[in-house]
Write a structure and sequence with these properties.
The complex is a heterodimer of chains A (474) and B (484). By secondary structure, chain A is of the alpha/beta class. In chain A, 39% of the residues lie in helices and 13% in strands. Chain A has 16 helices and eleven strands. The radius of gyration of chain A is 21 Å and the shape is globular. Chain B has three domains: 288 residues, no CATH class; 115 residues, no CATH class; 59 residues, Arc Repressor Mutant, subunit A (Orthogonal Bundle). Chains A and B meet through helix 10 of A and loops of B.
Chain lengths: 474, 484
């Protein structure tokens, strides 16, 4: 069967009778089976996906199908789907089956998307290479010796390898955008408060957002407008109405775009990626947009602030995995305390343990003010400074990643080096702004890479329109 | 002088009140007592991955109500915080509470000190939090059982300044707080069921010393009397240690009701570092001045306000005012009677006398009392207006009214032929008959034996079949006897 890169193509063929959802799901199931070496999926929901496909086929013949009919989508393994296992690629949630669906899943299903499976990721979404999964690395479809990025590496690899049309990931510090860049697909982190976190297994509550991973901006818009908006279960959501993103994908008028000189001059940025970004600067100027360099002398503070604050929240969020109520319990435990210590030591992988310890440290008496409290202040400053740029410009243009996908093990010895992978992406999470990675680049080493566009809070519409324009202009 | 007289006790109390909300603090689960174990547990209560808290707005309202009643400053911007610790009855591994921004601060409660004088106990703070589940250690030989029904039930914690100086003051403070939360309808105040819990921080120092001594915290006292007992025991224990030159261990102790003693639970060194930080899953709640005023308008009358009204404006004794305001229901019934009758003192006597005895005899609650405040007021007014005698009203009409609460007291008095004769001509006629009957007694009376007056009164009452207004009849009789 042919490979589909957009929902429009699928819906056209469904409409003409050339294709059924059932056939479509079967072809994806075959492709998943043929690409098992990528290790992109933790579990394929063949049964429920085929059942949903036949339901959608019936609805289509009755003319009652939802607007995502034909959208075959994968979920990162931290998104709850009632009656299905969910484990964030961790041993500690061994055997855990969610008893409720996340809001995003409910909304996707209500519009007749078909959920095909859950994808591998870094354990508890902590990582930039997918090497922290307790269930093995995900291979980058463009070069299986290389990482797909992380933490949503299974989701981006699955979309890149056409094992599904789209996927949902979560982005706490770049976990959608960085692997999207490495795998050559589009990935969006919406504004904090745009998409419900109900049913999303938390890493760092004030950073986490769910977002779509797609080939096209149209599909991204279609998914975003379904999953966004108020829901009584997440108190941090904005009540702002959700625009019809898919109906406003044209850039109107001339825009003002800032690019961060400090980013482009950062040591370790691949020169081809720098040139690529500068190429867009020229192209946009030539089109009459205002594109100006802006100073943002805070780059060195981004990653440390991010790691102080996210690990603090994570150390608390992950306390519930204690071997008492559900999930993994050590067989070597003999009392309550050993149940905690042994279950958590055996159930969590080394990177998760490192971040729990780091977070526990920064919140502990005597260190709180020096780390957590100061981190909060720096976060406020970064938000104000970023907002100040966006008061004057419509977008901020920057690279998504310093380089292209690296080989397995390349950064494993040095966690700091691995953390610096996030240098261009954490700004959006620290400040709550929406940001997207658009697959525009092709490196001389043969690997894809993306450019990143950050926009104003709740202006995903503008961001998507400009992204579509840039993607077409690549 | 005993060694105990050389020392002064410093006590601060932390009271946890479990709130009477329908649902839990951060989820939709019902907040009820007594359901089968682990039946009121949604994924939120169980701390399942992916769940998020939602703040129950009633908790804020209750917090404001309590804060207003304790004359606190109500905070506008309320942040929630996480208190992190591991325990089997805490499924999330943290409790959602308030840390740096308690909803109420700087309040006060007035109690009597040990000499009967007014004493102000300052309230340091009141904050909102959720309860943990219940660990049950004594129902299985080897395992601790956990019931999570209580996990997430809303609490308000009331923390005093260290202003309490004796076990009796602590007793009175707790009695006042319990009365107050019941008046406010925010907590049932039941210490046996654990809906009101108290931890006591106790230290002793030589009288005149400025510096506080090392303190101990005592937990697990399931009645107000036990709080008193625990404090008394601790005072003795601490003074014995200090007076012998020893050092008090800063620790948490548990009260053992059977023996009236305490034992160490954990030392300060073993204390948790709770790693408080702002709860990122809940936005701060803004309590506007306007909202506070709305809550203030709906506040029920408070016991100390009613007490002051009864003693100052109505002239009742402190004892009577205390009895009438002891529970909100009795106070409200009394208020209702006052609304229909101007005879406040008589109303107080009726409510504390016949009404209370009737309820006590039958173990009824005032809400089950069949006679409306309006009818009782009418009966009181009949007596005060000399239409019926108090004796007839209490012995005959009151029981009849309980049987037939739909009838008015006047109807009943007429039906039972109990309306008093207060017509002077009719009474004079009866008096003359009585006087004529015992001429020799009249002579005795006139000779100075005033005691026979009672005999004539008895005869008048007999002739009137008990209906003569005793006051008027008495005056007329004296007049008639003195005239002749």
């Amino acid at each position: 069967m042919k490979i589909y890169l957009s929902l429009a193509d699928i819906q056209r063929d469904l409409g003409s009778g050339e294709l059924s959802c059932e056939a479509l799901v079967k072809s994806y199931l075959e492709r998943i089976a043929a690409n098992e070496h990528l290790n992109a999926f933790r579990e394929v929901f063949s049964e429920s996906a085929l059942a949903k496909a036949s339901e959608v086929d019936q609805k289509r013949s009755a003319g009652k199908a939802g607007k995502l009919a034909g959208m075959v989508i994968a979920l990162k393994d931290n998104i709850c789907y009632k009656g299905h296992k969910v484990a964030v690629s961790s041993k500690i949630l061994e055997g855990f089956i969610s008893v409720f669906s996340s809001t995003v899943v409910e909304r996707l299903l209500a519009e007749d998307a078909i959920i095909i499976g859950r994808t591998n990721c870094d354990e508890f979404a902590m990582g930039s290479s997918n090497e922290n999964s307790a269930f093995g690395n995900v291979a980058n479809p463009h070069d299986i010796k290389r990482v797909p990025g992380g933490s949503s590496g299974g989701s981006t690899a699955a979309v890149a390898a056409n094992l599904c049309l789209a996927a949902l990931g979560t982005d706490t510090g770049g976990s959608i955008r960085q692997p999207a860049s490495f795998c050559g697909v589009a990935g969006l982190k919406p504004t904090y408060g745009r998409v419900s976190r109900w049913g999303i297994i938390a890493y760092a509550s004030s950073f986490d957002q769910v977002g779509p991973i797609t080939h096209t901006i149209e599909d991204m818009a279609a998914i975003l407008e379904v999953i966004s908006g108020m829901d009584e279960y997440d108190a941090t959501l904005s009540s702002k109405p959700v625009p019809a993103y898919s109906k406003q994908l044209e850039v109107t008028g001339k825009k003002r775009i800032a690019y961060l000189e400090d980013c482009l001059n950062k040591d370790g940025l691949d020169p081809e990626i720098k040139q690529h970004v500068l190429g867009f600067v020229e192209k946009l100027r030539a089109e009459g947009h205002t594109v100006e360099p802006v100073s943002f002398p805070y780059l060195d503070y981004l990653v440390p602030t991010y790691y102080v604050l996210t690990t603090a929240e994570a150390s608390s969020n992950l306390s519930r995995y204690d071997g008492v109520h559900y999930g993994y319990r050590s067989k070597n435990a003999y009392d309550l305390e050993s149940t905690y210590k042994k279950s958590r030591s055996e159930g969590f992988g080394p990177e998760v343990q490192r971040r729990i310890m780091l977070g526990t440290f920064v919140l502990s008496a005597g260190y709180y003010d020096a780390y957590y409290s100061k981190g909060q202040k720096v976060r406020r400053l970064l938000r104000d400074k970023t907002q100040a740029i966006l008061d004057n410009y419509d977008f901020i243009l920057l690279p998504t990643t310093p380089g292209t996908a690296f080989e397995f093990g390349a950064n494993s010895a040095d966690p700091i080096k691995m953390y610096l992978e996030d240098i261009f992406t954490v700004q959006a999470n620290l400040t709550g702004m929406p940001a997207i990675s658009i697959p525009t680049g092709k490196h001389s080493n043969g690997l894809p890479f993306g450019i990143q566009l950050m926009g104003r809070r709740f202006e995903e519409g503008e961001l998507l329109a400009m992204s579509k324009h840039l993607l077409a202009a690549r | 002088m005993s060694i105990y007289d050389k020392y002064e006790t410093i006590i601060g109390l932390e009271v946890h009140t479990q709130l009477l909300t329908k649902s839990k603090a951060y989820s939709n689960d019902a907040a009820e007592y007594g359901a089968l174990p682990n039946t009121l547990v949604s994924p939120v209560t169980l701390g399942h991955p992916g769940t998020l808290p939602r703040a129950n707005k009633r908790v804020i309202e209750f917090g404001v109500r309590l804060g207003l009643a304790l004359q606190c400053t109500i905070r506008e911007r309320n942040e929630y915080a996480r208190k992190n610790y591991f325990y089997a009855d805490l499924p999330k591994g943290y409790q959602i509470t308030q840390d740096k921004t308690p909803i109420c601060t700087n309040g006060l409660v007035v109690i009597k000190d040990d000499n009967g004088n007014d004493k102000t106990i300052r309230i340091q703070r009141i904050h909102m939090e959720e309860d943990a589940g219940k660990s049950i250690h004594d129902q299985d030989p080897t395992d601790t059982l956990v019931d999570l029904n209580r996990a997430g039930v809303p609490l308000l914690e009331i923390v005093t300044e260290p202003d309490i100086r004796s076990a009796d003051e602590a007793y009175r403070y707790l009695t006042e707080i319990r009365k107050l939360v019941r008046y406010l309808d925010i907590c049932d105040g039941n210490m046996e069921e654990g809906s009101l819990r108290c931890d006591a921080n106790i230290s002793v120092r030589l009288k005149g010393d400025e510096k506080f001594g090392r303190r101990v915290e005592v937990k697990n006292m399931n009645s107000i009397s036990n709080v008193k007992r625990a404090i008394e025991h601790e005072i003795t224990r601490l003074v014995d240690i200090v007076d012998a030159g020893g050092t008090v261990d800063q620790e948490t102790r548990s009260f053992e009701a059977l023996t009236g003693t305490t034992f160490s639970l954990r030392s300060k060194e073993a204390a948790n570092d709770y790693r408080y930080f702002p709860e990122p899953d809940l936005l701060p709640v803004i309590v506007s001045q306007q909202y506070v005023e709305e809550v203030r308008k709906k506040m029920p009358p408070l016991p100390h306000e009613l007490f002051r009204k009864y003693t100052d404006a109505l002239g009742l004794s402190g004892y009577d005012a205390g009895v009438l305001t002891d529970t909100k229901e009795v106070a409200l019934y009394f208020e209702d009677v006052l609304h229909h009758s101007k005879n406040a003192k008589a109303a107080a006597n009726w409510v504390m006398g016949p009404v209370k005895s009737f309820l006590n005899e039958r173990a009824l609650h005032v809400s089950q009392f069949p006679v409306s405040a309006e009818r009782l007021a009418a009966l009181i007014d009949l007596v005060e207006g000399n239409k019926v005698s108090f004796a007839m009203a209490a012995q005959r009409i009151f029981p009849a009214l309980i049987e037939s609460p739909a009838k008015t007291p006047l109807q009943l008095a007429e039906e039972m032929n109990l309306v008093q004769e207060s017509n002077e001509d009719a009474l004079l006629d009866l008096i003359r008959q009585a006087v004529a009957k015992y001429p020799e007694k009249v002579t005795e009376y006139r000779a100075g034996k005033k005691g026979v007056h009672g005999l004539f009164m008895g005869e008048v009452m007999k002739l009137s079949k008990g209906k003569a207004d005793p006051k008027i009849a008495n005056q007329l009789l004296t007049k008639v006897l003195d005239e002749q």
